[in-house]
Amino acid sequence: MLHILLLLLPLLLSISNASVNDFCVADLNGPDGPSGYPCKPPTKVTTHDFVYAGLAASGNTTNIINAAVTPAFVAQFPGLNGLGLSAARLDIASGGVIPLHTHPGASELLIVTQGRVTAGFITSDNSVYVKTLSKGELFILPQGLLHFQLGYGKRKAVAYAVFSSSSPGLQILDFALFASNFSSSLITQTTFLDPEQVKKLKSVLGGSG
Fold this sequence. Notes:
The protein is an alpha+beta fold. It folds into 2 domains: 42-169, Sandwich (Jelly Rolls), CATH 2.60.120; 170-209, no CATH class. It has 4 helices and 10 strands; from the N terminus they run H-E-E-E-E-E-E-E-E-E-E-H-H-H. The strands form 2 sheets. Strands 1-2-9-4-7 form a 5-stranded antiparallel β-sheet, with no helix packed on it. Strands 6-5-8-3-10 form a 5-stranded antiparallel β-sheet. Strand 5 and strand 6 form a beta hairpin. The radius of gyration is 23 Å and the shape is globular.
């Protein structure tokens, strides 16, 4: 038995030392493709590549939505590259809202750590699921579906989102319609909104057309 193990040992060692990529810290100077960024040379990787403190500070909620989203995606945290996860911090002041939006590339797990947050999503068959969450509660938002978060009550809310992709993508419905150069006449025809309302929203959000 011992001689068999001795014969197998070199093979086992060669397999264990085969080319295995434990990680691929992003080289942000390279192109970002469907499979992510190219890898930083292992000799240049340090512990700092696996640590990110960007979510420790509160986001600035002094804006039109009274809320802030601070991302920790691969562009901010290169160590996430290729690992299939990322995160973000949501700061929502009283009356604040994260408008209807989608993440085309990821599902989202929302975790409330302060205050209360009303979150919800709309399915492809137009069913609506909404829940007001308290500290410690989690809510899942399936990939690609329109969803939102609202501050509930008079207290500031803080939540963290964990995504199933290092680059989940983001498209905010209101901004896509009214902060872009999407023609006002086409918006009116495709949404049934009043032309004056479309004009007003474009002026507020900075769109043209």
